[in-house]
Amino acid sequence: MTMTRTVTVHDHEVTVRTVEVPDEKPEAFTAITGGRRTAACTAAVGVLVVVVAVMPVAVNLFH
Predict the structure, then answer these.
(1) Which of 34, 42, 59, 63 has the least CB density, counted as fewest CB within 10 Å?
(2) Rounded distance, CA 22 to CA 45, Å?
(3) In this predicted model, what pLDDT tens digit does every residue of 28-63 receive, in sequence order?
């Protein structure tokens, strides 16, 4: 257990608060990883962005 003290001064009055904090084990880090579906969706959105970006140039070529 860890002791944590908080000292507060308000209008020349000092208040000390002591709290016992239990030691917690840090949780194991788990990264958010995507699978094939995430990769496919990312690729599809990327293609869509490129198509929308190139669309004005393509329309101007045909007019």
Answers:
(1) 63
(2) 47
(3) 766 666 778 888 888 999 999 999 999 998 888 887
At residue 41, the 3 state secondary structure works out as helix
Distance CA 3, CA 21 (A): 6
Q: What gap in Å lies between CA 63 and CA 6, rounded to an integer?
A: 73
Alpha helices in the chain (DSSP H): 36-62
For residues 4 and 19, is the Cβ–Cβ distance under 8 A?
yes
Residue type, 43: A
Distance CA 20, CA 4 (A): 6
Number of helices (H), then strands (E), belonging to the chain: the values are 1, 2
Sign of the dihedral through C-alpha 26, 28, 32, 37: negative
